[in-house]
Design a protein that fits this description.
single chain, 875 residues, 434 Repressor (Amino-terminal Domain), Rossmann fold, five-stranded parallel sheet, two-stranded antiparallel ribbon, 63% helix
Length: 875
């Protein structure tokens, strides 16, 4: 036991061994073990052993320690003697103390989501120095660590990423792409790791690139080898974001223009290991450390070294092979382990053309591990291979019949990993290996994939009520980590024609993707379901009375409505309109009231945004009646809000206020943050129109709090528009403009066309009021262009009116009047726009003769809306 001394500063008893003194000194300097190891050019393992009093430093290391632990020059001789055990530990008393904390001199911590390695890195000093030298070159912006599976690329990348680097002022972000099934999901995976939430219909890549454009950030992208067909997105990112650096891992080069490469090889293996110098043989050191972790009673001696050497040679120094081999020290001797691995060494050197070179080393370890498993363990891990991006204990039990003891056994054998979040996963290379074993069992594979599909699509259905309530954030936290499993389950349901599963899961899948603004992926998934339903109907033929046909039609009606929604959000309004109509027809014929209500309500708001108000009211009112009939309070709240929106556009503000108030009461009782935010925002707008200004502050707070609860960027941006409106009403035009610009930038980046065009019109009006004619012209023109492209005719007409006001101020009175007459004649104009147009008409006609007015009216009648838009150079 180390001696106990008294600390001179605190006069309390402290464990004052040499190792503890080093540790306290390091911490007072705010250095990690990794940072100190880098400075003194030794391994982290050696620092750990010194601080644990297992090792003393060499004279060279001690001299470096004295320098970097800031030992005063006149006291270094004493420190070196104590370090080399040439002087008693009491000698450390004479060395000047450091403050317990010097955090005031430490730069602000960078944001990072880097996993903290649970074990120290062993034997990579040379690689670390070489990679850091390469990566710190300003010309190196994309560095790929290549090498076979299991060689330790990820661990080495994490070690590099943990090194302090002032270049990355916005931090370091780790992106695991292990469960990412296709190249198009690289961008969503990066966004999830960054905590970036998409919003709107703009391409996800564009949104993320805009966010990263000014960032000074290191992105660590792990496991890219299965995504090479779409890897060009990284070159695009580097071009667009000049201060981003990428550190990637892949089993083969990415072959990109910006790529620098570093090949990671297995740990070096010596033919002769010395017992007192294991640090010089990193492969053996790694094996011994992991063996001690696997078996606390593990001991080794000089007699053990030949067997350890042989094991290292058999797995060719691959870290994963060493770690897996070490797990068996609980069951057999080192010689037995070497002998068992040796039995399959011929496979390691196979020349078979269909065996990838990068698999020839590690596969022997997997084969060996597989052969030592019990029949029950083999079946369990085979079935676990169906999961993507990990799984919960419940999922393992339901899908793979994996009991807790079986999972525990597989974790103990390092075949299944258990992380701090409570989730389990398999190393991807191992998952692929055991998945081939599953494919060899045709019936078992079919059964487990069916169970996988049922589990995750039932999970979606089970979270429907939570997504509609105050538990929305918890539901998203439960579902989002399972995105890869949900995608796979949906595709499995399609392959097995399980339309019943898709039908019941469709609503939750839709709302989950809507809340995350993954419109393109959502539309693609749902469309595959629609195609499957159509194919099934074609195969059923004319069996019109068949229950099976009725079930397929019911699924089709639901899927069509959800596909239509995503088309609408993507700006494909014509396609959305046809899909909604088909869904309404199918659902009405089947008396599917809930699906019919969904389709009618969503179709109604689409028609309202296109200016077809009467049709919109008819559809939304029927949706409300049906929602009452089936007691669906969520749909009732949403469609009551939709009806209020249409009524507000028609100018009955008192009725709209009543409807919004009624809807908000239902929303509050449900607790859905998105619904609360949406409805409270529209109530703010109507309250402002009615002059009920005292209601607005509380409603704004409620809107913002609800949006912030789930980091709903759409809701936050929409609240910004309402706040700008409130600021304007109090004469704070500068604040109003600032808040409005923030929302406009969000809508523009997100590609949210309707809200962008609407907000641009508002910006134009603010600019007019402030006398900024050039800015007003630009805002109204852009608003008209966006609205015309998406058939948002009410917003387009509002933009035309703004441009007419500008024309009038430029003495282009006749052209201004033409625009006003079109606005008044078009049934898509809302009441607010019409009222302002009527006032402007009177003013304009007062400057013209009756003959001039008549000529303008005749010309206006001869021009189409498209012609007016072209004449004003909106398109």
């Amino acid at each position: 036991m180390p001696p106990v001394l008294t600390d001179q500063k605190t006069t309390t008893a402290v464990d004052y061994s040499f190792g503890n003194w080093i540790k306290r000194r390091r911490k007072a300097l705010d250095m990690t073990q990794q940072e100190l190891a880098q400075k003194v050019q030794c391994s982290v393992s050696l620092i750990f052993k010194m601080e644990s009093d297992e090792r003393r430093p060499s004279r060279q290391i001690a001299e470096l320690l004295a320098e970097h632990l800031e030992i005063p020059p006149d006291q270094r001789a004493v420190f070196l003697k104590v370090a080399r055990q040439e002087k008693a530990i009491d000698g450390l008393r004479s060395i000047s103390s450091l403050p317990e904390s010097r955090l005031d001199s430490v730069p602000t911590q960078l944001k990072t989501n880097l996993p903290i390695p649970l074990t120290s890195i062993i034997g990579r000093e040379h690689e670390l120095r070489a990679i850091l030298q390469q990566f710190r070159d300003p010309q190196c912006r994309l560095l790929t660590l290549t090498g076979p599976g299991g060689v330790g690329k990820t661990r080495l990348a994490l070690e590099i990423a943990h090194q302090p680097n002032e270049t990355f002022k916005n931090g370091v972000c780790f992106v695991s792409l292990v469960g990412t099934s296709a190249p198009e999901f690289i961008v969503p995976a990066m966004a999830d790791a960054l905590g970036f939430v998409f919003s709107g219909a703009t391409e996800l890549k564009t949104q993320l690139f805009n966010y990263l454009k000014e960032q000074q950030l290191l992105l660590v992208l792990d496991n890219l080898e299965h995504l090479l067909d779409g890897i060009e997105v990284l070159d695009e990112l580097l071009e667009y974001a000049p201060s981003i650096k990428l550190l990637t891992t892949s089993r083969e080069p990415l072959n990109l223009r910006a790529e620098w490469k570093f090949e990671v090889q297995g740990l070096p293996i010596s033919t002769h290991i010395e017992l007192n110098n294991l640090e010089s043989n990193s492969a053996a050191a790694l094996f011994i450390q992991r063996a001690k972790q696997a078996n606390a009673n593990f001991v080794f001696s000089s007699e053990s070294l030949p067997a350890i050497t042989r094991i290292c040679q058999l797995v060719e120094g691959l870290p994963l092979g060493l770690e897996l081999a070490a797990t068996w020290v609980r069951m057999m001797s080192l010689k037995e382990i070497a002998r068992e691995i040796e039995r399959s060494v011929d496979f390691l050197s196979t020349t078979a053309r269909d065996a990838p070179q990068r698999h020839r080393s590690i596969r022997a370890v997997f084969d060996y591990s597989w052969n030592l498993l019990s029949t029950e363990e083999r079946q369990t891990i085979r079935r676990l291979s169906v999961f993507r991006s990990g799984f919960t204990r419940e999922a393992a039990e339901k899908v793979a019949s994996a009991t807790v003891p079986l999972l525990s056994a597989l974790v103990d054998k390092s075949l299944v990993r258990h992380n701090e979040t409570g989730r389990y996963d398999l190393h991807e290379l191992l998952r692929q290996y055991v998945n081939t074993q599953l494919q060899a069992e045709a019936q078992e594979e079919q059964d487990v994939r069916r169970l996988h599909a049922e589990y995750y699509l039932f999970l979606l259905e089970a979270n429907k009520q939570k997504l509609q309530s105050h538990q929305q954030r918890d539901a998203l936290a439960r579902l989002i980590p399972e995105t890869d499993n949900i995608r796979a389950a949906w595709d499995e349901a399609i392959s097995y024609r399980r339309l019943d599963l898709m039908r019941h899961a469709a609503w939750t899948l839709w709302y989950m993707y809507e809340l995350r603004t993954y419109f393109r992926e959502g539309e693609a998934l749902i469309k595959r379901g629609v195609d499957t339903a159509r194919k099934s109907l074609a195969e059923l033929g004319a069996k019109t009375t068949s229950q099976e046909r009725t079930n397929v039609l019911g699924a089709l009606g639901s899927l069509l409505a959800h596909q239509a929604f995503f088309c609408f959000r993507l700006g494909r309004n014509g396609e959305a309109q046809e899909l909604y109509k088909e869904s309404i027809t199918v659902s009405r014929n089947l008396d599917e009231e809930s699906t019919l209500a969904f389709a009618l309500g969503q179709y109604g708001i689409l028609r309202s945004l296109q200016g077809a108000y009467e049709e919109a009211i008819i559809n939304v009112r029927e949706a409300i009646e049906l929602s009452h009939a089936v007691d669906d309070r969520w749909q009732l709240a949403l469609y009551t809000t939709f009806l209020g929106m249409v009524i507000d556009d028609q100018g009955d503000y008192t009725e709209a206020h009543r409807l919004f108030t009624e809807a908000l009461q239902i929303c509050r009782s449900l607790g859905d943050p998105r619904l609360i935010s949406l409805t409270a925002g529209y109530l703010v707008q109507t309250a402002h129109t009615l002059g009920r200004l005292t209601e607005i502050p509380d409603l704004l707070r409620e809107e913002l709090q609800a949006a912030a609860e789930t980091n709903d960027r759409f809701g936050i941006a929409l609240a910004g528009v309402r706040m700008a409106l409130a600021a304007q009403s109090h004469g704070n035009d500068v604040d109003a403009h600032r808040m409005l610009i923030e929302s406009i930038n969000h809508f523009r980046d997100a590609g949210d066309a309707w809200f962008l065009s609407h907000s641009l019109n508002f910006e134009g009006k603010l600019a007019l009021a402030a006398g900024n004619r050039v800015e007003a012209q630009e805002s109204f023109t852009e608003a008209g262009r966006v609205a015309f492209a998406t058939q948002a005719f009410p917003v387009l007409l509002d933009a035309l009116l703004g441009l007419a006001i500008l024309d009038a101020e430029k003495d282009h009175v006749e052209r201004a009047l033409e625009s006003v007459l079109h606005v008044l004649a078009n049934p898509s104009s809302n009441q607010g726009t019409k009222k302002r147009a009527q006032q402007l008409q009177l003013e304009l006609e007062s400057h013209l003769t009756p003959k001039q007015i008549q000529a303008v009216k005749l010309r206006a009648q001869s021009l189409t809306l498209d012609a007016i838009v072209q004449e004003l150079r909106i398109i």
